[in-house]
Amino acid sequence: MLSFSAPVTHGHKIAQKFGIATANLDLDGLDLEPDLEFGVYFVLANKIPALLHFGPRKTFGSDVSAEVHILDFEDDLYGKNLEIEVLKKLRDIQKFQNADALYTQIEKDIIQARKYFLRREIKNLWNDVSEAQRHAMAAEATQKISEQDFFQKAEEVLVYEPMKDEVPFTPLLQKKFPEKQYWFPESLEGALQCAPTKSLIIVPGLAADLAGKRLGRGGGFYDQLLAQYSDIPTLMILPKFALREMIPVERHDRIIDEVIVCTSG
Questions:
Q1: Do residues 56 and 62 make contact, with C-beta atoms less than 8 angstroms apart?
Q2: Closest of 165, 136, 157 to residue 262, by C-alpha
Q3: How many CB atoms are closer than 10 A to CB 168?
Q4: N or C: which terminal CB in the chain sees fewer CB atoms within 10 Å?
């Protein structure tokens, strides 16, 4: 994992015109410039979630720069050193038609960054969950699902095989309610496929808010699936620590009808 340190210097303050503060890094004094291809990256800046733009400002025809936008951070960093830990590349450097188009992309980048770091946080929290707690969550989830009117009326239910960072309710639900028909989606040519008739969809995900905004794994597979079956009720099962006040969403993200929160464990 690449990391480097550089002082913050004055820049062109282009992003500040749109209300987006960035810290410009002075790379001239470094013994060795970061061995990093041009692009926009998810990074930690002094251990705080951030975005790094490394490369030329193609929209404004300027030289190579390194600019950092730290999420939810407004302090003056001029003259201070930033320790940058590069985590993952988001996209290549692009040239936009004008400043407004660039600003629109930056807004999208920030949403992507919020999702990325929230996924990291939730996955780390799952590491502290014991097997006993997982079993307790599964039992609670099964009970709460059974109390849902959606489930009681459903003859067919689309479910999923829970991963290690999801409540493992599916086997218990199938055992307790064997009279229902359970379907599992399959991946085919980059999209999820499932039976065309069903009366309830239980949707996986890492986090959600009570308004039904969901954080998936970033592939968009379930958003595409739910767009095809928009008239079918949807449920989502979460541990309490994965419930958030607000989930950042994009235009393609689908809203879940009911979020079930497990407080066990």
A1: yes
A2: 136
A3: 17
A4: N
Instruction: Tell me what pLDDT residue 146 has.
Output: 97
| Three-state SS sequence of the chain | CCEEEEEEECCCCCHHHHCCCCEEECCCCCCCCCCCCCEEEEEEECCEEEEEEEEECCCCCCCEEEEEEECCCCCCCCCCEEEEEEEEEEECCCCCCCHHHHHHHHHHHHHHHHHHHHHHHHHHHHCCCCHHHHHHHHHHHHHHHHCCHHHHHCCEEECCCCCCCCCCCHHHHHHHCCCCEEECCEEECCEEECCCCCCCEEECCCEECCCCEEECCCCCHHHHHHHHCCCCCEEEEEEHHHECCCCCCCCCCCECCEEEEECCC
Q: Which residue has the tokens 């988001």?
A: 90
* Residue 151: per-residue pLDDT: 95
What phi, psi does 248 have (nearest 5°)? -65, 135
Nearest to 190 by CA among 236, 232, 224, 229: 224
Residue-wise pLDDT tens digits, 117-129: 999 999 999 999 9
Higher pLDDT, 147 or 220: 147
Q: Are 30 and 114 in contact (CB under 8 A)?
A: no
Q: What is the pLDDT of residues 19-44, one digit of tens each?
A: 677 888 988 766 556 778 999 999 99
- Distance from C-alpha of 213 to C-alpha of 89, rounded to nearest angstrom: 25
Measured CA distances, 83 to 33, 48, 49, 188 (Å): 14, 10, 12, 42
